[in-house]
Design a protein that fits this description.
By secondary structure, the chain is an alpha/beta fold. It has 18 helices and 13 strands.
Length: 391
């Protein structure tokens, strides 16, 4: 059984959950419980009719953003999990992040079930650092060691996250297995060679990109993302070469972003903002020269493996980011992926590094050197864990 508080119809669900479950369902029946946003419920019901023929039994619950409603979600998930594990004799549960893990941890007081704690980033620490109602997150952090101790296997996104867990909880874990599986992507979908030329050309014309250089930010906006730093980066590029356009592919806070850009002297002709379904993303990414992302420093960054990185590398797009994010100091290597780490942004350094990328015509090797991020590698690791725990 697979439990997730992330929606299958969210970008993260489409890229990091459903493709993996489809692969595993070829081998055995999968029971999936997810929380979907109210705007996606109708579409989720339609998708459910399709995936149930792929050996996936999907229970759809309504997602709530409020931390107090999340408590109700936890209670609801507890009883649904108890019902499903009893009815279908389920003895292994894959818990994506903290809330599902808390549910199965307490369920184990009534019925012993093996569970995988797929910790993702350090959600409890993020809550303590920047969220309201810190007492709730402090409680979750207080029981984090028990959640890890009682799990049958631990999965995290980064080597730094793994090291942190071992160092903090070494007296509880007793050499428990921790597997690092970074966010991957579908290398068949994100492949320039598979794009329809007429559709790509139409998108290029519609966005008025002719004669432009495209800097991309792609993903979500919010407290964890350093948009001011990225704006400074863009303005530094623009001051040196007027051809640069700032292109955003985002799924939230579009009006807030527009106001911030204009406040910083970046006007309509110099930026484009779109939201895109996942199956069209490769077309937009194929138009990009360089991508940038900066995250807030903290525990979340320590355990973070950006989904976007795999997509970008699969499309041969170099990136600029910070060494403070996850395992970027090990991953980013100019010889392998034509990308740079720039922590302290200065105009001269930005221009120097980007000019180096701009004049280097070997970016088509990024994809070849990044096959580690093909989601099929992650699928193999998960299946190995499932098979080991099923013995």
């Amino acid at each position: 059984m697979y439990l997730t508080h992330d929606g299958i119809l969210d970008h993260i669900g489409q890229s990091q959950i459903l493709p993996y479950l489809k692969e595993y369902s070829k081998k055995t029946k999968v029971y999936l419980v997810s929380f979907e946003k109210s705007t996606n419920i109708e579409l989720a019901e339609k998708l459910n009719k399709y995936i149930k023929h792929q050996n996936i039994h999907w229970v759809i619950l309504k997602y709530h953003k409020s931390i107090f409603m999340k408590i109700i979600d936890v209670i609801k998930l507890f009883f649904i999990s108890l019902y499903l594990t009893q009815k279908y004799d389920i003895n292994l549960v894959h818990c994506r992040s903290y809330l599902p893990t808390i549910v199965i941890y307490y369920l184990n007081f009534f019925k012993k079930i093996k569970y995988i704690f797929d910790i993702r980033d350090f959600w409890a620490d993020e809550g303590i650092e920047i969220k309201k109602y810190k007492f709730i997150y402090r409680y979750i952090k207080k029981i984090e060691g028990k959640l890890l101790r009682d799990s049958s296997h631990i999965v995290c996104l980064t080597e730094k996250g793994k090291k942190y867990i071992f160092n903090k909880y070494k007296n509880l874990l007793n050499n428990k297995n921790i597997t690092v599986i970074p966010c991957g992507t579908n290398f068949d979908l994100f492949n320039k060679n598979n794009l329809k030329k007429n559709l790509r050309d139409k998108i290029y014309r519609d966005l008025n990109f002719r004669g432009k250089k495209i800097l991309l930010y792609y993903g979500s906006l919010g407290d964890n993302y350093l948009i001011d730093k990225m704006i400074y980066f863009y303005k530094s590029l623009k001051s040196n070469d007027n051809k640069w356009i700032f292109f955003f592919i985002i799924n939230n806070d579009i009006e807030i972003l527009k106001r911030k850009l204009k406040h910083n002297g970046i006007y309509n002709k110099d930026f484009r903002i779109i939201n895109s379904p996942r199956n069209h993303l490769p077309y937009y990414l194929s138009l990009v020269d360089l991508s940038i992302f900066y995250y807030r420093e903290g525990m979340r960054s320590l355990g973070c493996s950006p989904t976007k990185l795999a997509d970008l590398f699969a499309m041969n797009i170099p990136v600029v980011t910070s060494r403070l994010l996850g395992d970027m100091d090990k991953i980013i290597n100019y010889d392998k992926n034509k990308s740079f780490l720039i922590d302290r942004v200065s105009r001269s350094k930005i221009i120097q590094k980007v000019n180096q990328i701009d004049f280097d015509k070997s970016c088509n090797k990024i994809r070849k050197n990044s096959s580690y991020f093909d989601y099929k590698n992650g699928v193999k690791k998960y299946i190995n864990i499932y098979n080991e725990l099923a013995k």
